[in-house]
Design goal:
about 675 residues; mainly alpha; Farnesyl Diphosphate Synthase; two-stranded antiparallel ribbon; two-stranded antiparallel sheet; 28 helices; 4 strands; globular
Length: about 675
């Protein structure tokens, strides 16, 4: 299953740490397997190490991670023998290449070696917990065989997955407490329980995706079905479920439920019921992890798994319920207004969701009116866009109108979180369909996505922005600037890349600086809007930077009240804002380096937009740093002055044109 974006630093730390552990184990004569895959268990262990401890993690911690990972690798070889798995990770498994004997012996070798490595941690508590986890994993496999013979209620199956998949995750999650022994880390018992729940949820998602042919997990589909293995996605269906053909099973899994002998659209399909259960369970788990101050990347990963299941439902319905297939293998475009063209869910609630999106999009008016929508919601960039030629201005306005509309799907709605997630899923499906050439009947999607596709700009940029907006559905804490950078990348940096690509630029060095400009502008927005965001229950200021300046969410409320009564904001808060403005200023400077390398028609507008946005910093200062009660904005005369300054800055950059560093073409 998929991994989270924005975890390159953590990934590098894990690789380095495990490499040290491998070397230490090899010196003791332990046979260590190549460590491939997503390394979810080591990632889980690291997620509970406080950020301030990550630069001095002892090798004992990484040896514990290696022991857990090796036990998992051993279980994969044993599972292949039990399940007849001749392929794994898109290549032949050891079972497929060399037979059952080799797979069993290799699994045993890795398992016995994992115990020796666990002892090298010198933590008796971890060794005891690890040995118990391995034993519980084996018991879970035996329990699964028993329930497959008779079927069982969903809550009974949870005990199976907590054992067979959750136990090793639990050992990994408790590792930080057992080995590091820091008072800042929660109790090993609590962390272990969270890890068990995470591993169980991961297994439930994997069980679900096994029935989804459109989703690529790197291993053959319907293995559970063909091996007559009962999983919770089957609901109350017993062993007779396996009497179907694989094709019948997939069709019944995705089509709406039955009333007698007929399919009834109002009765949710097995796939929909299972996906809704996973959404609810995953949301609860994410909340528990958030409360435990787990790494946000781990929490994001749960959201990605949920959305992957939801996409698999939509794609699965498209496969089993598709209309006539054209000569090129694609479905013919649906007539304008036919919302089934989106490939979205066929349940009545999903039709209502897509219909509501269509109504909101049509309310924007005809295409020529989108510029007014853009100008109303983005005055600074709208001002800068005046420097474009008419056709280029239209293109930029439409991209920004699409971005603003996407943002408003969450910001301008009072719907509960679950409904907002469905709305974003529906909008993503509509836009993907439009990008792939289908007529959705929604002009904003058809025009903007159609042009995006015609210019060969990756749809991933639009999808990333939708996922960034999704990060605003539930309140979240951004613990570090790196955490916030993931957000600014999704909601702003990808827009910079999208606009740059729309002007034909594909140079990786220039695109990197388009990302920097998006990051800078979004930081400026965050600095400007602290008060407005607080009223919405949001706070984007990184917690570690706040703490460094003696600022907290609670103290911000006090500062706001004091400033409202004329008492000013004190001395600590301006220091925090100046640090953040300094980070933004550095990103603006990076962006200016690349501006002379842009097409001539694009340079002036980008320079003006950057300077007008950066000028907001001076307005924050002029307001006495009171962005809690006052919104910093620049007047039209001030914008004109800033525009001249930006253009002058661009001319200076042209004269001392920066030599580009080598970069991979984007």
């Amino acid at each position: 299953m998929g991994g989270a974006r924005g975890t390159l630093a953590a990934g590098s730390l894990i690789e380095t740490g495990l490499a040290r552990a491998r070397k230490a184990a090899s010196q003791r004569g332990v046979a260590v397997p190549p460590l491939r895959g997503k390394l979810l268990r080591p990632r889980t262990a690291l997620a509970f190490v406080p950020p301030e401890r990550r630069d001095r993690i002892p090798d004992r911690f990484w040896l514990g991670c290696l022991a857990v990972q090796m036990a998992h690798e051993a279980s994969l070889h044993h599972d292949d023998v039990l399940d007849g798995g001749i392929k794994r990770r898109d290549s032949s498994s050891l079972l497929g290449a060399r037979g059952a004997g080799a797979a069993l012996l290799t699994g045993d070798l890795y398992l016995s070696g994992s115990y020796r490595i666990a002892l090298m941690t010198r933590s008796g508590e971890f060794v005891a917990a690890f040995a118990e986890a391995v034993e519980t994993t084996v018991q879970g496999e035996r329990m699964q065989g028993e329930v497959s013979a008779r079927g069982c209620p969903a809550d009974g199956y949870l005990e199976v997955v907590r054992a067979k998949s959750g136990a090793l995750f639990g050992a990994a999650a408790g590792l930080a407490s057992w080995v590091l022994g820091n008072a800042a880390i929660r109790s090993a018992h609590d962390l272990r329980e969270l890890g068990i729940e995470l591993g169980a949820f991961y297994q439930l998602v994997d069980d679900f995706l096994d029935y989804c042919p459109a989703d690529d997990t790197g291993k053959p589909k319907l293995q559970d079905f063909r091996n007559r293995v009962w999983t919770s996605v089957l609901g109350d269906r017993g062993p007779r479920w396996f009497d179907r053909t694989p094709e019948e099973a997939v069709r019944e899994f995705f089509l709406p439920g039955r009333n007698g002998t007929k399919h009834v659209a109002s009765v949710p399909s097995m796939a929909h019921e299972a996906a809704e259960y996973l959404r609810a369970r995953g949301s609860e788990l994410a909340g528990r992890l958030r409360a435990a101050q787990a790494d946000p990347a781990l929490i994001d990963l749960i959201g990605q798994w949920i959305r992957r299941c939801e996409r698999a439902v939509r794609d699965g319905i498209g496969q089993v319920d598709a209309g006539p297939v054209g000569a090129n293998g694609s479905r013919p475009p649906a007539p304008a207004g036919d919302l089934r063209a989106t490939g979205a869910s066929t349940t009545s609630s999903s039709f209502k969701t897509v219909a509501s999106i269509a109504a909101r999009a049509h309310a924007l008016g005809p295409r020529r009116a989108w510029g007014r929508y853009f100008a109303r919601h983005s005055r600074s960039f709208s001002f800068a866009a005046r420097f474009f030629a008419p056709e280029e201005r239209r293109r930029v306005r439409e991209i920004y109108a699409w971005c603003r509309f996407t943002d408003d799907l969450v910001d301008e709605s009072a719907a509960p979180g679950a409904e907002l997630h469905r709305v974003l899923d529906g909008w993503a499906a509509i836009c993907r369909a439009a990008y792939e050439g289908e007529a959705t009947g929604i002009p904003l999607a058809d025009a903007v996505m159609g042009e995006m596709a015609s210019r060969r700009i990756p749809f991933a940029l639009a999808f990333e922005l939708i996922e960034g907006v999704r990060m605003d559905v539930e309140p979240r804490v951004y613990r570090t600037m790196d955490d916030l950078r993931r957000y600014t990348h999704r909601v702003a940096s990808v827009v910079g890349a999208w606009l740059t690509c729309s002007f034909g630029v594909r140079d990786g060095w220039v695109i990197e600086r388009a990302h920097a400009l998006g990051h800078a502008m979004q930081l400026t927005n965050i600095i400007r809007d602290v008060g407005e965001d607080l009223r919405r229950g949001r706070l984007y200021l990184p917690a570690d930077r706040m703490a460094a300046h003696g600022v907290s969410r609670e103290s911000l409320l006090d500062v706001r009240a004091r400033a409202r009564n004329g008492g000013g904001v004190g001395t600590a808060y301006p220091g925090l804002l100046e640090e953040l403005m300094g980070i933004a200023d550095a990103a603006y400077a990076d962006a200016y380096e690349a501006m002379p390398h842009l097409p001539a028609s694009f340079q002036r507008t980008v320079a003006v937009a950057a300077q007008v946005y950066q000028g907001i910093h001076d307005r924050v200062r002029a307001n006495g740093y009171d962005n809690l009660n006052r919104r910093a904005h620049t007047s039209l005369p001030a914008k004109v002055v800033l525009a001249r300054r930006g253009y002058g800055r661009l001319r200076a950059r042209r004269r001392r044109r920066v030599e580009r560093r080598p970069a991979t073409p984007w």
